[in-house]
Design a protein that fits this description.
With 284 residues, this protein is of the alpha+beta class. 40% of the residues lie in helices and 33% in strands. The strands form 2 sheets. Strands 2, 3, 4, 5, 6 and 7 form a 6-stranded antiparallel beta sheet that branches. Strands 1, 8, 9 and 10 form a 4-stranded antiparallel beta sheet that branches.
Length: 284
Amino acid sequence: MSTDAPSKPSRMIVSLQVGGVFFALANVICVAILAWTYMSVKLEPKTIEVKGSAKKAIVSDLITWSATITSRNADLTKAYDKLKSDGDHVAAFLKSKGIPDKEVTFSSINTQKIYAREVLPSAQVKTSEENADDNDNNSEETKSSSRSGRPIVVTSHKIESYVLTQTIIVESHDMERVPEVSRSVTSLIKDGLEIDSGSPNYLYTKLSELKIDMLADATKDATTRATQIVVNANGKLGKLVEARMGVMQINPKGSSATSAEGNNDTTSFEKEITSVVTVRFQLN
């Protein structure tokens, strides 16, 4: 009788021994993971996050203003001559009000063609509808008129007149003179000019330099707030870990409006700029 093959009890003992090793190894790994998690949580530095703000009053140091002159005539050359004459008239007016030539810029001339409107008898409905298909502005009106039997009004290809416009732009550091000019320039209408005056825009050109100071002041304010919170809780404030600057809000004096993109008021000479910073400190 052969004795080479191991008995079933022997094989079972070997299997149990191998399983025990794996089970013990699994226990060790689980304990290690739990210990690592516990230590990570326990040793993770505690922090506090607070917001600080800073506000400064500023006054604009640059003003921009624009006005548009318009000339209309059936003859393009005459329309241009009138616009050129009106532009010279405005330039002379600005100079008389103390605005230097170097602060005045004339834009390129914009030319618009005005096409004549024609009335077609209802007998030409079919032809007018075909023409209407070539012109979206006429389409609905033409088809409606054709259905009702009324005379049809269409835009022709004949140029009735030209409308020329040009913008005069003033950019200056004279914060008092330019607003007065913007209000009085429309007096040129009595001289036969067609002129439209816009509102002045008040700008602050040193914003990039100011941002650095605002960030420092807002961070100082946040540090003071964090210190008060921690001291009142019998703790101790540690080192600064992170600082994030939010958008800046530039509003008219006395306004506290905010927006996610940041406000940048250009309507007021006197403004207030507000900066918010979010900081994170370690706790000792």
